[in-house]
Amino acid sequence: MAALGGDGLRLLSVSGPASEPESAALSGAGPGLCCWVSVCSCLSLACSYVGSLYVWKSELPRDHPAVIKRRFTSVLVVSSLSPLCVLLWQELTGLQPGISLFTLMGVRLEGIFPAALLPLLLTMILFLGPLMQLSLDCPWDLANGLKVALAPQAWARCLTDMRWLRNQVIAPLTEELVFRACMLPMLAPCTGLGPAVFTCPLFFGVAHFHHVIEQLRFRQGSVGSIFLSAGHLIGPVLCHSFCNYMGFPAVCAALEHPQRCPLLLGYALGVALFVLLLQPLTEPRLYSSLPLCLLLDRAGDSAGPLCS
């Protein structure tokens, strides 16, 4: 717990008469105990999510439609109940941000369009090389490709494909809800907003370790975890779905591709543009107010430049 102590615990030490209600609520349990409550709550959510995948005993592989449907049921139940864990955490710590629970979790309409488009655009820029590789290997030209992609028959097949629904809809939605929207508000008052954004993937990794048993390899995680700092859930969900569709970049295949030079240039350019555009495209002012800042204000911390 040393990583969550020190300066992180200072965020929970509120002084001054203006913050007396919050400090009184926190001093009763003690700042150390508040961090323990946050970490234990996040671990409970992670274990519940993973455990829900194994309540159904079956000898069938994980990609079998029957297994996927059963897991849909269990993870949707856990995800639906996960906001109750945040409510319980608020009661135990005494932190009340003064906004609705759904707003705190990033489920809101204010600023939704930039929150949906800009993080997805930034992620697509990072995948510039793989996107070029995909277009070069596509058997259709641009017009025919768009026609196939927008055809109602193609979407109807996708919506009846259990694996597509799992990878593109259910997994991104439930994982981002549990591991970003619910965990960030609980971790931020303890570690600070910046460290909390990078701490959530640790719990996310706990939930994905079970794939080693099933596939003997790790699947790619979402690169959209940082975008919840914009105060919206939709951005991480769309980025997670896009990353699941693209998969891990096939760098080895690019090295052996006939168009190797332009592809490698695209890979390098995508990474460079991502680094350059990361800060301006994740500027909180683009997405209106940041609900987590209200929570940190109640905890007596300004959360640094993200809330300034």
- Total domain count: 1
- Give a quick account of the main beta sheet: strands, pairing sense, barrel closure: none
- Give the CA-CA distance, first to last residue: 29 Å
Shape label: globular
State the total count of DSSP E strands: 0
Pfam family, one: Rce1-like
GO molecular function: exopeptidase activity; metalloendopeptidase activity
Protein name: CAAX prenyl protease 2
Transmembrane segments: 29-51, 72-92, 112-132, 264-282
Topology (SSEs and partners):
Elements: H1 7-10, H2 20-29, H3 31-52, H4 65-93, H5 101-104, H6 112-126, H7 128-137, H8 142-150, H9 152-159, H10 162-191, H11 193-208, H12 211-215, H13 234-246, H14 251-255, H15 260-281, H16 291-298
Helix pairs in contact: 3-4, 3-10, 3-11, 4-10, 6-13, 6-15, 7-15, 10-11, 10-13
Descriptive labels:
single chain; 308 residues; mainly alpha
